[in-house]
Amino acid sequence: MGVQDEPIDPFNGDPTDPAAELDDLNEDAESEPLTEEERQDVLEDLSDLEIYQALLSPTGIRGLVIECEDCHEPHYFDWDLLRGNLRHLLSSGRPRVHEPAYDPDPDHYVTWEYARGYADGVHDTLTEGSDDETP
Description:
Strand 1 (63-67) and strand 2 form a beta hairpin. The chain has 135 residues and is mainly alpha-helical. It has helices at residues 24-29, 36-56, 79-92, 112-132, and strands at 63-67, 74-78, 109-110. The chain starts with 23 loop residues before the first helix and ends with a helix. The chain has one domain.
């Protein structure tokens, strides 16, 4: 028997191999690209995210919380991380692998719905006086 060029895999054939799920990444790489409607939705989310960050960051909000469909846990995303995830989705057609944030303070994150309502309220307040003006 000769010398091997590569190290022997200590988990070869082990059903609890921690790297077994890495084989599934090739299947994910062959996923369908985003439809035009999905691309438009992601672009709108990116645009909305800019508005939400501009309005909410000065109040101490650091990002958004999203209920994960896979693990049913809240995931906390800082503005930049969420923006990066949306851009990755646009370029690759698939979401990034995610992990929950380490020890986030839930008081510094709001839901998409809250952010949308806040932005709508600011918009309504700013346009309230302009509706009454006559040229």
